[in-house]
Write a structure and sequence with these properties.
Length: about 270
């Protein structure tokens, strides 16, 4: 029951690969609909969620708490959507949004600039100069976005389990390589037993989203984890009243058996 995430540079062929892998394995394929459903569930405009995922710091930087909350909504919906596995997710930083979700095969696709220029010209009707500008701008935004939010370089191959260069292999070969990796004994051996882990990740994500949806809690510095229904709250809040509000909210959530509060108010733990 693996989840496969496919990351790619702008117009590098990731969507085509995702569709091929999903067809071969009989998996569901999801992408932008995650944004649509998350927006509907949390009452946020799709455009705002899209901006939170795609725009680099600068556009939303002064609203960074808002961005943080939107990402909590997207993640909460996404981990629920992939809970049963057998899913291919492409686009919108799936390998980051699912970074602690067990059983994820993280794939990165790269392609040379000529391949991407041709794709941009065909898809958008750009001339060559405009195509190059568009690709470079989008790639730079993704690098800045991941550094800003996750303090890593989006291009680092160590973030992925499989990196495939479409300059060297055909799309069909790349598709078969990903399928083989997903079905390999080595990868399948990592999948059991993970049901409890999945439920804990989902619970923690839902708690984070619920706190974000409250809108009155400065939750950017809160780290939330769950283990067998016990939710751990760490990090800083603005006041004792805010800490009380967090604990009260979390205790009322379905699936929460108990909480471990290690929050601090701008200083030492209490």
């Amino acid at each position: 029951m693996p989840v496969i995430t496919i990351s790619r540079g702008t117009l590098s062929g990731g969507q085509n690969l995702a569709e091929c892998v999903a067809l071969k394995l009989g998996y569901r394929i999801i992408s932008r609909e995650v944004l649509v459903e998350a927006a509907r569930q949390y009452g946020v405009e799709v455009e705002k969620l899209t901006a939170a995922l795609e725009q680099p710091p600068g556009f939303l930087e002064r609203f960074s708490l808002e961005r943080h909350r939107y990402l909590a909504f997207i993640r909460a919906y996404l981990v629920e959507a992939v809970r049963n596995g057998n899913v291919v997710y492409h686009g919108h930083a799936g390998h980051f949004l699912l970074r602690d979700f067990p059983g994820v095969l993280r794939v990165r696709i790269i392609a040379n600039m000529e391949y991407r220029i041709k794709a941009a010209m065909e898809r958008y009707g750009f001339d060559r100069r405009k195509a190059i500008e568009y690709i470079q701008k989008k790639d730079a935004e993704r690098v800045r976005w991941t550094r800003f939010l996750y303090h890593v370089n989006w291009l680092d191959p160590l973030l992925y389990d499989v990196v495939i260069n479409l300059d060297e292999v055909s799309l069909s070969t790349a598709c078969q390589m990903v399928c083989d990796a997903a079905l390999s004994a080595e990868f399948q051996g990592k999948l059991s037993p993970i049901e409890r882990e999945i439920e804990d990740v989902i619970l923690a994500a839902k708690v984070k989203a619920a706190i974000a949806a409250d809108g009155t809690i400065g939750d950017r510095n809160l780290d939330i984890k769950a283990h067998e229904g016990i939710v751990s709250l760490e990090g800083t809040v603005e006041s004792l009243d805010e800490a009380d509000k967090v604990r009260m909210l979390v205790r009322t959530m379905p699936g929460v058996k108990d909480i471990e509060s290690k929050m601090s108010v701008n200083g030492p733990h209490w």
